[in-house]
UniProtKB/TrEMBL annotation:
<dbReference type="InterPro" id="IPR035965">
    <property type="entry name" value="PAS-like_dom_sf"/>
</dbReference>
<dbReference type="InterPro" id="IPR029787">
    <property type="entry name" value="Nucleotide_cyclase"/>
</dbReference>
<dbReference type="Pfam" id="PF08448">
    <property type="entry name" value="PAS_4"/>
</dbReference>
<dbReference type="InterPro" id="IPR052163">
    <property type="entry name" value="DGC-Regulatory_Protein"/>
</dbReference>
<dbReference type="InterPro" id="IPR000160">
    <property type="entry name" value="GGDEF_dom"/>
</dbReference>
<dbReference type="InterPro" id="IPR043128">
    <property type="entry name" value="Rev_trsase/Diguanyl_cyclase"/>
</dbReference>
<dbReference type="InterPro" id="IPR000014">
    <property type="entry name" value="PAS"/>
</dbReference>
<feature type="domain" description="GGDEF">
    <location>
        <begin position="169"/>
        <end position="302"/>
    </location>
</feature>
<protein>
    <submittedName>
        <fullName>PAS domain S-box/diguanylate cyclase (GGDEF) domain-containing protein</fullName>
    </submittedName>
</protein>
<dbReference type="InterPro" id="IPR000700">
    <property type="entry name" value="PAS-assoc_C"/>
</dbReference>
<dbReference type="InterPro" id="IPR013656">
    <property type="entry name" value="PAS_4"/>
</dbReference>
<dbReference type="Pfam" id="PF00990">
    <property type="entry name" value="GGDEF"/>
</dbReference>
<feature type="domain" description="PAC">
    <location>
        <begin position="84"/>
        <end position="137"/>
    </location>
</feature>
């Protein structure tokens, strides 16, 4: 192979026919005074780069955009300096479509041991990377609505509590359940039910601030984190906004349907400073809100002014100690 590549001039037609059968993009660059000149490109390279002109014999910096050429030239220079192959992945590539390339740069040395040519092979890994990102998102986001899932909700609530402890701000945790989703499923099918859940998520998302979190736990159960607020009233405004958004009907195949939602609310630090208790208390308030089956929100109330003091103070002291430790 080395002999074949070193005799580029003699075997040009032979390697051109072979490389044109390869789906990977193949380039042979001539090294001259730390500049890199296009000596050969296979058919796949021409197709992906969608070139409007012949670039054979031209230097890289005069062909590619500045950011791209600067990045690639630094990689090529590294190969010349070390005399060793180099692999990297980048989306910096001239293409008429989204393209992520896995590149291998291979030095071709002359008899003196100097790098005379560089063989570059670029593999299209765009679909592989897209699939990897989709799989990663599945661990943190709900597949149907695109909202954060329970795991992400809990992570963000932890971060919000830590920040609130440092800034003396409040947090509202809201738990929500939809009304009539089961009826829609039973009457119009699960596709219609999925459409209703997506509509529910869309309406809720449109009522909160940009930095607030709306998450789907499963079914028609959702949660909201309203962080960095100065008063409970700020959260109540958002709760009312959510309820008002469900007053308008929802249409499936020309059928007018009425969605509904109940909301339970708990506040940090009023009700608890532990995330699991905040969710638990918001769930209890949600249970009260759903009793009448109307568009309604309820704020958690401590029954008879009683609270599990051992749990409260153990969590409180642990929380204070943690934040003093990291400050």
């Amino acid at each position: 192979m080395d002999r074949f590549l070193k005799n580029i001039g003699q075997d040009a037609k032979s390697f051109a026919r072979i490389f044109d059968l390869i789906k990977d993009l193949v380039f042979i660059m001539e090294v001259s005074d730390q500049s890199f000149r296009y000596l050969y490109m296979n058919k796949s390279a021409y197709e992906v780069m969608d070139l409007k002109q012949d670039i054979i014999g031209k230097e890289m910096q005069y062909v590619l955009p500045k950011e791209m050429s600067t990045f690639l030239i630094s990689k090529y220079k590294e190969v010349v300096t070390t005399g060793k192959s180099l692999e990297f992945e980048s989306n910096l590539f001239p293409s008429n479509r989204e393209f992520i390339g896995e590149t291998s740069l291979n030095p071709i040395l002359n008899n003196e041991g100097d790098c005379q040519y560089i063989l570059a092979i670029v593999r299209d890994v765009t679909e592989r990377e897209r699939h990897r990102i989709e799989l990663a998102n599945m661990a943190f986001y709900d597949y149907l609505t695109g909202l954060p899932n329970r795991r992400t909700f809990e992570d963000r609530l932890t971060k919000a509590i830590n920040q609130a402890a440092r800034t003396n701000k409040k947090i509202a945790v809201m738990m929500l359940d939809g009304y009539n989703i089961k009826k829609i499923n039973d009457k119009y099918g699960h596709d219609a039910g999925d459409m209703a859940i997506k509509e529910m998520a869309f309406r809720i998302k449109g009522c909160v601030r940009q930095n607030d979190t709306v998450a789907r736990f499963g079914g028609d159960e959702m949660g909201i984190i309203i962080a960095n607020i100065d008063s409970n009233e700020m959260a109540e405004v958002i709760a009312n906004r959510v309820l008002e958004s469900f007053e308008a009907p929802f249409y499936i195949n020309e059928h007018e349907l009425q969605l509904g939602v109940g909301i339970g609310v708990s506040f940090y630090p009023d009700h608890a400073i532990d995330k699991s208790l905040l969710v638990k208390y918001a769930d209890k308030a949600l249970y009260d809100a759903k009793k009448k089956g109307k568009l309604e929100y309820r704020i958690f109330k401590i029954r008879n002014n009683k609270i599990n003091l051992s749990t409260y103070f153990s969590e409180k002291f642990r929380h204070v100690f943690y934040n003093k430790t990291i400050d």
